[in-house]
Amino acid sequence: QKEVEQDPGPLSVPEGAIVSLNCTYSNSAFQYFMWYRQYSRKGPELLMYTYSSGNKEDGRFTAQVDKSSKYISLFIRDSQPSDSATYLCAMTLSGNTPLVFGKGTRLSVIA
Amino acid sequence: DVKVTQSSRYLVKRTGEKVFLECVQDMDHENMFWYRQDPGLGLRLIYFSYDVKMKEKGDIPEGYSVSREKKERFSLILESASTNQTSMYLCASSYRTNTEAFFGQGTRLTVV
Known about the structure:
The structure holds 2 protein chains of 2 kinds.
Chain A: E1 4-5, E2 11-14, E3 19-25, E4 32-38, E5 45-51, E6 54-58, E7 61-66, E8 71-76, E9 85-92, E10 100-101, E11 105-110
Parallel strand pairs in A: 2-11
Antiparallel strand pairs in A: 1-3, 3-8, 4-5, 4-9, 6-7, 7-8, 9-10, 9-11
Chain B: E1 4-6, E2 10-13, E3 19-25, E4 31-38, E5 42-49, E6 56-57, E7 64-70, E8 73-78, E9 87-94, E10 102-103, E11 107-111
Parallel strand pairs in B: 2-11
Antiparallel strand pairs in B: 1-3, 3-8, 4-5, 4-9, 5-6, 7-8, 9-10, 9-11
């Protein structure tokens, strides 16, 4: 079983839709959770960072962590064509361990 | 803003060549990382470094080595390039390993 599972998509939605992106993980010791956005031919950029369980909101983006289910989500409200990108979840333990990434979900928002 | 700069956006090298990929960060971060990204395989960690002259193997170190002589610079070396090393290479840095990583723009390497 992979440590972090993420549906690769592609996911295609109309402009204005609510988008839900998800990752599941197997290591219950993960404590730090992140979402990155990667545009084509660019490096990933951090979107959201959360510690442990709960929700975090930033504009149109909401990150949700459910440690009991080992499941994290990213919601995008009022999606825009500029949101078309690959979204990568990432997580890590405490201490000196590198991030573990999901494989990414490719999202297309159609105008 | 954190800036992570990779020396080349695109590189074409011949099989057997020794290849150097350079990465520089300007935020005095302790940690630096090299990943490769391939379709369907996602980001895979090659090597990382906690400090100057320190290095740790990631998930796929075979065929690669690294050098970190100065805190801000982390180099990835392909000792003898092979066609299966054709990939997008991404450098990243972070203040600590469990904090967010900041990525460079990537180097697309083609080995022919």
